[in-house]
Amino acid sequence: MMKKAVNDNKDKNIKDKRKSVKYSYILLILLILFIFQEILFRIIFPVPEILNFNRINYSPVFFEASSSELKYLSNASFIWASDPDGAESLISLNLYGFRGKDFSAEPNPDIQRIAFLGDSFVEGYLAKEDETIISNFGKEAQRNGKNYELINLGIGGSDFSTYCGLLCDMLPTLKPNHVILILHGNDLPPPPYNPEWLRKPISPEYSHWWLPRIYYVLKNVFSGKTVPHRWISKPFTFFAPVPAPSNPWSNTEKASRYEKFISSKITEAIKKGRFNPYSVDEYAQFKEHLPEEIKLTKHLNGIENFMAQYGKKIYIAYVPSRNQVSSYIHAKILKESCNSLGIPFYDFTEIIKNEENSGNHLYWNYDEHMRPKGYALLGKTLYEWWRKAKNM
Length: 392
Fold this sequence. Notes:
Strand order of the largest sheet: 4-3-5-7-8
Radius of gyration: 27 Å
Helix content: 40-55%
Number of helices: 13
Largest sheet: 5 strands, parallel
Mean pLDDT: 88
CATH class of the domain at 99-205 and 287-389: Alpha Beta
Low-confidence stretches: none
Order of helices and strands: HHEEEHHEHEHEHHHHEHEHH
Shape: globular
Number of strands: 8
Structural class: alpha/beta
Distance between the termini: 103 Å
CATH topology of the domain at 99-205 and 287-389: Rossmann fold
CATH architecture of the domain at 99-205 and 287-389: 3-Layer(aba) Sandwich
């Protein structure tokens, strides 16, 4: 009887040992699978260092993007096209939704960081990545033996409120050494100044390397946001084709009114989302706004005071619309306002006018943006001016 009990106990120990080994193998397999999944997820799903800093927070002006893309823009892309000019550009966006390569939250202490603010001229519509104002600024700097980290924060369709809101969050978060704001003719007159634009910067929400990547993936899924992935998404068109409600040509009454005085090829391009529908009657719009008296002192003073809190200085440049053939009142007032506040200012009007008058057409025939050679001239000239201005 005792011998049987001993044998039963021995069999139980063996079974317990086998069960323990089995569970150990299962745990080992699960651990290996978790590690494999974690490595795979880290390769496929990158995470920005700052989770709550994204282009879409400042100007959600994308007419064809899906609802999920409108909540978060990360490694996305879109097309800006002008079929009448036979031109289009593919704009690839980084993890933060801005054009250009990814940037780290903390700047490299050995390389000065320069942030550029502005609209589609800064972002570089109808230009390749190496043809933008910022890229040409960098090329000219390198020709002068200088190397800077350049961050393109241009947002097409934006205005002063966008620039101020972006500056408010960007300056303390990305800590650039210099900030250059490039204004375009259609930025003026600006909306009435609101001190709230520059009052409360975001509290950066940083990602953590030690958290499983699946945590961030599921967090985006449950919040209805796009899950950032390593590859650039299939591009969407900036303007939706008819019959999308966002396309003015979907309004038959408005379309019939404009189609009387524009060519059929432009009409067709607009309907396909391949030409800016708001360019129609552009001259009448500028005729209305250009003579208006503009008031910029509050806007510029607010920006300057905000920059001073961080010991930084703003540099401002002005690009006229193709409809402006002289300095006109807006550029003059902008210059006077900057000078009165001690803000370095440069007006591109004269150099553009000289090129245009000599037969070197810098703008496209139909689209309001510049050809690559126009952006090249602006980038080179901007660097030469800024290099001198920062030492004054």
